[in-house]
Amino acid sequence: MKHLAFAAVCCIFACGGGSSGEPGPQDASPDAANDAGTPAWDTGDGATSGGSQLLDGLDPTNANYKAIGRFHGSLTCTAVFVQTSANNPAAPAYALTSGHCPSILGANDVTLDAEPGSDFEVVFNYFANTEQARVRVPVTRIEHATMKGHDLAILKLARTVGELGTLGIAPLAIAPSLPAAGAPIDVVGAPLDTSQSDDFLRRERCIGRASSVNLVEFHWHFFDAQPNDCIDIRSGSSGSPVFARDRVQIHALMNTTARGSEGTTDCYANRPCELTATGYAVRPDASYATPIVGLGGCFDERGSFNLRRAQCPLDDGRQLEVQGGPLGANQPYVMDNGVRRRLRWDRSVKHTEFTHYRYKTGPAHATNCRDLAGYGAPIALNANSVIRDDVPEAEGFYYLCLLGGRSPTPDSTWQNPRFARIEQVQIDTTPPQRLPGTLVHDFDGGGLRVELLFYPPELSQYRYKVGPPASTDCAQPDGYDDYLRIAIPILREEFPAKLCIVGYDEAGNVAPPFARTFE
């Protein structure tokens, strides 16, 4: 697996593990909570700091942040209560978080109107010093969640806007536009911390970087990501709202980071790559946020979510179905019934309503699936539903862009190209550079048991053999066995013994043999 120069949040991106309980009342009384009015916003006078600072929940200048809370779902993240109507206290309350927080999704999955887990909730007023005034609100519906292009989830809560207002929680507005590149920003979230006393709302003052970028991370693609220099984006930070320093409006949600990813394979989970004019590159000191500008158009005059509104910029989920899992990393040639041939896309497409499809392929950095330019002529699904084009030989990431429609001529029945389905493959011809890791345990009778450690995608499979040092040649392929994740026994009477290890990456590239001798 090729590494670029060492120039994505916990687990996958900036999320925590499973949900966990958090002490506090089911609802706080209005008397226990501070007034939910809108005090002067604390804009600060510094551009950036050396990390996040724990917020004081009793300081009235932080009252706006009561609307930001801990999301307990499939993963532990941050969520924010957002304004969806001008003045309707009867409107349902909605919270935003990252799409991977309710559930890790595939690169093209779009979840609509789904039942949440029975324990999904958002805990508001989540400051370290407001334990008795926290407000716990169950999630009643996952209105929309996706990691397709944008990492975003919209959660319907079991309270109205007015009910949360009486508990001191006022919604935060969605910004109408993005701040200028290089503008100072604030990020407020609840990253998980090893110290329970610090595991609450924190604010970091950062700088937004150059214009939007497109990312590749594992088999996901993220469009229009907003780079920044925030350094304290970690487990639990996903879904943290991002504010321009001089605004009280949210323009993005924290999504992923490349910080702290040294030693991880480029473009793999937790080490996102930016697509560049010539390929891809890791920016090791960058964190990224998902833009939410325009999301207010998905709520009607009463403040209820409505995906069908013309102003709503979200994917409605209509897309071709593709048989087979992600292609992942591959070599450009494969063996097919004993015959060596080029790797092909070999994607079979179908749909219950679409009758036709169009597609185009190309390098990820140079192929805009959201642009109709380059798509081929419509193909009838009942005439040819399999795409067999060869995948290029050169190393890199490649896209297969797919659009479906109900007419032999592209018209309004066709899928919006902004929401094209994207199949991704990586061509990798570079052998693993990382050395195998081993754990050696004592074995009954004075022998040893050797456990091999995996580092996917760089070292995803092993073969091994054991023999006398003088007669065991690790370079000879004979005698190797597959390592089945069972520790290798080396009996005392076999000493001295040579252990030969050959590693393979996910594309099947073979590392040079590694030898270890036990005396």
Automatic annotation (TrEMBL):
Domain of life of the native organism: Bacteria
UniProt region (Disordered), positions on chain: 22-55
InterPro entries named in the record: Peptidase_S1_PA (IPR009003), Peptidase_S1_PA_chymotrypsin (IPR043504)
A Pfam family it matches: Trypsin_2
Phylogenetic lineage: Bacteria, Pseudomonadati, Myxococcota, Myxococcia, Myxococcales
GO biological process: proteolysis
Protein name, as recorded: Serine protease
Coiled coil, from the record: none
Listed Gene3D superfamilies: Trypsin-like serine proteases
